[in-house]
C-alpha cells in the first residue's frame, strides 16, 4: 500500500551512455581559451604568423657592415675627464684674472666634490674687490676669495673625502694644502705650477711631503677638449647606435 507520499518506483540503473558525463560548462581560463594542443590548426597559424614577423624584422635589420662592431677609440679616459671637469667648473669663476677649478674623485672613479674660486656664500662678488694689487691689501681679492680646493671640499656630496684624489688646474697654495691634508685627500694632480718658486707653493710642497700626500703634474693626451652643443644633433652614418 503506498505511503502518504504516493507510490515510489524503484530507480533504474542508467545505461552506459547515460553514465558518460556530458560537456562541462565553461569555467576559468582553460575553458574560455582552449589549449593549442587541441587546436592543431590554430597552432600552425600562430607559428606561421610568428615566422612572418621574424622575416619582416630580419628584412628591416641593417647589414652587419652598417652596424658598429666595436667601441669608438676617441673617448675621454678617466684622467682627462676629471681634469676637464675641473677646467669646466673654472668657467663659473667671476675672477677676471685667474679662473681655477677643482674636482675630487674617490677610488671608484666617482666625482664627490667640485669647486671653483669665488667669494664666500652671501658675500656680494659685485661689492668685494677683484684686483690683485693695491696699496692696502684689504683692497685686493686675497683676504676674501675662497680657492677652488676649499670649495670642492666644502661642496662634497659624500660623508668625507678620505683617500680621494683631487684634480686641480693650479698647484695648491699652503692654505689649501692644509685643508687637503686635514680632509684626508691622498693625491693631488695639478695642471699648472706657475707659482712653483713662491713661498706659498714651497710651503705646500713641504706640508704634502710630511703628511704623505702625493702630488704630480698632469700630462694631457690632447691639448684641448671642445664642447660642441650642436654635436648631439648630428646624424651618424650608422642606423643603430
TrEMBL record:
InterPro entries: APOBEC/CMP_deaminase_Zn-bd, CMP_dCMP_dom, Cytidine_deaminase-like, dCMP_deaminase-rel, Deoxycytidylate_deaminase_dom
GO MF annotations, alphabetized: 5-hydroxymethyl-dUMP N-hydrolase activity; dCMP deaminase activity; identical protein binding; zinc ion binding
Co-factor(s): Zn(2+)
Keywords for this protein: Hydrolase, Metal-binding, Nucleotide biosynthesis, Zinc
UniProt source species: Bos mutus grunniens (Wild yak)
Function: Catalyzes the deamination of dCMP to dUMP, providing the nucleoside monophosphate substrate for the thymidylate synthase/TYMS. Also, part of a nucleotide salvage pathway that eliminates epigenetically modified 5-hydroxymethyl-dCMP (hmdCMP) in a two-step process entailing deamination to cytotoxic 5-hydroxymethyl-dUMP (hmdUMP), followed by its hydrolysis into 5-hydroxymethyluracil (hmU) and 2-deoxy-D-ribose 5-phosphate (deoxyribosephosphate). Catalyzes the first step in that pathway, the deamination of 5-hydroxymethyl-dCMP (hmdCMP).
Protein name: Deoxycytidylate deaminase
Superkingdom of the source species: Eukaryota
Bilayer-crossing regions: none
SUPFAM superfamilies recorded: Cytidine deaminase-like
Residue ranges with Low complexity bias: 14-35
Region Disordered: start-end pairs: 1-35
GO CC annotation, single: cytoplasm
Family membership: Belongs to the cytidine and deoxycytidylate deaminase family.
Amino acid at each position: 500500500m503506498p505511503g502518504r507520499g504516493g507510490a515510489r518506483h524503484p530507480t533504474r540503473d542508467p545505461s552506459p551512455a547515460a553514465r558518460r558525463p556530458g560537456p562541462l560548462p565553461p569555467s576559468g581560463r582553460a575553458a574560455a581559451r582552449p589549449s593549442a594542443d587541441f587546436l592543431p590548426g590554430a597552432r600552425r597559424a600562430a607559428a606561421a604568423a610568428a615566422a612572418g614577423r621574424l622575416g619582416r624584422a630580419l628584412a628591416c635589420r641593417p647589414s652587419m657592415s652598417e652596424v658598429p662592431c666595436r667601441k669608438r677609440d676617441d673617448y675621454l679616459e678617466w684622467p682627462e675627464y676629471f681634469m676637464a671637469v675641473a677646467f669646466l667648473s673654472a668657467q663659473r669663476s667671476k675672477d677676471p684674472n685667474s679662473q681655477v677649478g677643482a674636482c675630487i674623485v674617490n677610488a671608484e672613479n666617482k666625482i664627490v666634490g667640485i669647486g671653483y674660486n669665488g667669494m664666500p656664500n652671501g658675500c656680494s662678488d659685485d661689492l668685494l674687490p677683484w684686483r690683485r694689487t693695491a696699496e692696502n691689501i684689504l683692497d685686493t681679492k686675497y683676504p676674501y676669495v675662497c680657492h677652488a680646493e676649499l670649495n670642492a671640499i666644502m661642496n662634497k656630496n659624500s660623508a668625507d673625502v678620505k683617500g680621494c684624489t683631487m684634480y686641480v688646474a693650479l698647484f695648491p697654495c699652503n692654505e689649501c694644502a692644509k685643508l687637503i691634508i686635514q680632509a684626508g685627500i691622498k693625491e693631488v694632480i695639478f695642471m699648472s705650477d706657475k707659482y712653483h718658486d713662491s713661498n706659498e707653493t714651497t710651503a705646500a710642497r713641504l706640508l704634502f711631503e710630511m703628511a704623505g700626500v702625493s702630488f704630480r703634474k698632469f700630462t694631457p693626451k690632447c691639448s684641448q677638449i671642445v664642447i660642441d652643443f650642436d654635436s648631439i644633433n648630428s646624424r651618424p652614418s650608422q642606423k643603430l647606435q
